[in-house]
Amino acid sequence: MEFKRVARSGQVTEGIVRRFYADDYEFAISRLDGKAYATSNYCSHLDCLLSSGKLVQDGIGCSCHGSAFDLETGEPICPPATEPIKTYPCEEHDGEIFVGIDPSEPPEGPRRRRMRTA
C-alpha cells in the first residue's frame, strides 16, 4: 500500500465532498464527524460524479438519482445503486490528507464506459 497526498486538511470541511487526484487516480474525499474518507468518484449506478453530491445518512450521496453509499465499506445504503463503490484507506496528519493506493490495482473509473469499450 502506498499513501499519496491528495489535499490539505482545510480543503475538505465537515459535511463536504470534493474531487481530488493523485497520479491517475480520482477520488471523492469527504469529511464526516471530523474524519476524512476516500472513495471512488463514480457512482456504480450510472457513473455520475459523487463529488457533485453530498453527504447523506452517514454516507456519500449521488446527485443524479439519489443513490447513497457507506463511507467505510462502499456498500449501497440507498437505491437505485445495487453495486458497491471502491473505498480507500485515508489518513490525515500534519494538516494533509493521504489516500492509500495499491499500485497493482488500476485506477477506478467509470464502469459503464469501460464496459462499452470492452
Describe it.
Residues 97-118 are annotated as: Disordered. Keywords: 2Fe-2S, Iron, Iron-sulfur, Metal-binding. It comes from Rhodococcus artemisiae. The protein has 118 residues and is mainly beta. It is 6% helix and 43% strand. β5 and β6 form a beta hairpin.
Key words describing this protein structure:
single chain, 118 residues, mainly beta, 4-stranded antiparallel beta sheet, disordered C terminus, iron, metal-binding, Rieske_2Fe-2S_sf, 2Fe-2S, Rieske_2Fe-2S
Mean pLDDT over the residues: 91
Shape: globular
**Largest sheet entry:** 4 strands, antiparallel
SSE sequence, one letter per element: EEEEEEEEEEEH
Number of helices: 1
Region (Disordered): 97-118
Protein name: Non-heme iron oxygenase ferredoxin subunit
InterPro entries: Rieske_2Fe-2S, Rieske_2Fe-2S_sf
Domain Rieske: 3-99
Topology summary:
Elements (H helix, E strand, L loop, with lengths): L1 E7 L8 E6 L2 E8 L2 E6 L13 E3 L2 E3 L6 E3 L5 E3 L8 E2 L1 E4 L2 E6 L9 H7 L1
Antiparallel strand pairs: 1-11, 2-3, 3-4, 4-9, 5-6, 6-7, 7-8, 10-11
Keywords: 2Fe-2S, Iron, Iron-sulfur, Metal-binding
Protein name: Non-heme iron oxygenase ferredoxin subunit
Organism: Rhodococcus artemisiae
